[in-house]
Amino acid sequence: MGKREIPIRVLVAKPGLDGHDRGAKVVVRALRDAGMEVIYTGLHQSVDQVVATAIQEDVDVIGLSILNGVHIPISKKIIMKLKEKGVEDRLITVGGVIPTKEDEEELKRIGVHGVFPTSTPFDVIVDFIESNVHPR
After folding, report:
1. Structure-derived torsion over alpha carbons of residues 88, 132, 105, 122, reported in degrees to the nearest 10
2. Could you tell me the CATH superfamily of domain 9-127?
3. What pTM value is reported for the model?
């Protein structure tokens, strides 16, 4: 399979009440430096806002940045809403505070494709996205 001719489009979202976005902004920069088009939602996005933005922007990847311990319930809600809207073909990633391996496994079980705990090297995230996004 050849290289994509158009840049990968990534939505980086901060769902819920988490008020810390420094890490998300650094990831946004790393993805842009890797040649991806990145849309950043800003803080305090609802599930509906995240899904609506993903659809409106026609993104390939939805990256959720979550630091406040609600990674599993928020991810479940977003995945359910994507299915309701018929756009479950997007690559879903979650980054931030993922306290246990069990949490990582549960995220993957519910449909998250990539889990990136705090301090994951940027090249690992970029490589994962580039390896898993295919033309739609």
Report:
1. -120
2. Cobalamin-binding domain (3.40.50.280)
3. 0.94
